Amino acid sequence: MKTVLITGATGDVGSHLRREFAGKYKLRLSDRRPLKPAGGLETFVRADISRMPDALRITKGVDAIVHLGGYSVEGPWEPILQANIIGCYNMFQAARVNGVKRIVFPTSNHATGFYRRDQVIDHCVYPRPDSRYGVSKVFGEALGSLYADKYGMQFLMIRIGNVNPEPIDKRRLSIWVSPRDIAQLVAIGIEHPEIRFEIVYGVSGNTRSWYDNSNAERLGYRPKDNSEAYAPEVLAREKPGDPVAELYQGGIFCVAEEVPNPAPLPRRKAKSKAKRRAKKK
Ligand code: 15L
After folding, report:
1. Confidence check: pLDDT of 15 > 90
2. pTM as predicted
3. Do residues 18 and 29 make contact, with C-beta atoms less than 8 angstroms apart?
4. Ligand 1 center to 84 CA (angstroms)
């Protein structure tokens, strides 16, 4: 049985994957926030991946890494820099040092969010990030490409739409992915024997999809869900949104400077910032 490290394990996607992968892999869960592992095949290691020693410690001896840890929405540059640029570099470099070849990296629909909604895009399009967050995801894709070409590592880059038990609004009807479909894609990323560097879209088999996901299908992805089943209900409660956001696939990320963040700055950083400010006075 493979040992798989999941970073950012306390987040939404991490929680879905824990449930979907129970009994399938030995899970080494990690996050900077505490988490109670279920025991048995689950263990937990607390870590802050913006520190290299932590990244080195958690990546030792695993077969594959699902690197979910990071800042997951648009927000101020500093936490994005720490978590998604420095943290991502630390994880890929630590994997390299520890001889872990296989990484599944959940990038995001926001790496290509400035494509219009009337366009269908595939895995070969040039990135068009819609936010600083989107740029940080493009950084992860580029770093993975470098580590694949230069160091022979293997990456599945999943440009995730929105993982949720049900699609929550009109935009998400096009980018929704159910927990079992995202688990299927991540498992392909862990298992597929011929992955070197691949980009796929993390979406269910949605009728209203903006993506040509043939690269995922080529790798064996057969989505079980389609958001269309929820469309009447979702559209009935939809309210008109920002006209610019409505034009582009990334929606509100294309206009907002901040989107509410479920994962704020770690306490130690918030504290030390407050201390610095107090010293200056
Ligand atoms: C993302 O990349 C975010 O991580 C997630 O929280 C959602 O905002 C999602 O995109 C989305 O576009 O709905």
Report:
1. yes
2. 0.92
3. yes
4. 14
